[in-house]
């Protein structure tokens, strides 16, 4: 399979990890829930984990690659107060100011 399109995701948070199994067909995410999130990768897409916190979705169909990357991101979208969650590598999260104490 000639991989033409890539989408890199960065996982930010203490204890948040990802791992790919069975030749990039399954993606397991530890995101602070009581269970591991298991995602089945569509046929036209492959998944690689370079580090426990960097996931690469790749394939020949741009729409399917981006659709799957969005599905992974929706498991834990970036949080605006602490910046934790799953975000695209090139994404910039504007952090909000916390509440002020007297």
TrEMBL record:
Domain Large ribosomal subunit protein uL6 alpha-beta: 14-88
GO MF terms, alphabetically ordered: rRNA binding; structural constituent of ribosome
Gene3D superfamilies: Ribosomal protein L6, alpha-beta domain (3.90.930.12)
InterPro entries linked: Ribosomal_uL6-like, Ribosomal_uL6-like_a/b-dom_sf, Ribosomal_uL6_a/b-dom, Ribosomal_uL6_bac-type, Ribosomal_uL6_CS
Record keywords: Ribonucleoprotein, Ribosomal protein
Recorded superkingdom: Eukaryota
One cellular component term from this protein's GO annotations in UniProt: ribosome
GO BP: any one term: translation
UniProt keyword annotation of Ribosomal protein present: yes
Keyword Protein biosynthesis tagged: no
Segment forming the signal sequence: none
Family, per entry: Belongs to the universal ribosomal protein uL6 family.
Protein name as it appears in the record: Uncharacterized protein LOC109115548
Organism of derivation: Nelumbo nucifera (Sacred lotus)
């Amino acid at each position: 399979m000639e991989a033409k399109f890539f989408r890199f995701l960065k996982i930010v948070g203490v204890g948040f990890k990802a791992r790919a199994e069975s030749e990039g067909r399954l993606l397991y995410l530890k995101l602070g829930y009581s269970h591991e999130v298991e995602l089945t990768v569509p046929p036209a897409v492959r998944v690689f984990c370079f580090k426990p916190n960097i996931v690469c979705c790749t394939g020949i169909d741009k729409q399917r690659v981006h659709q799957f990357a969005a599905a992974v991101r929706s498991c834990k979208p970036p949080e605006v107060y602490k910046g934790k969650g799953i975000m695209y590598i090139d994404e910039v999260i504007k952090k909000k100011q916390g509440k002020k104490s007297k």
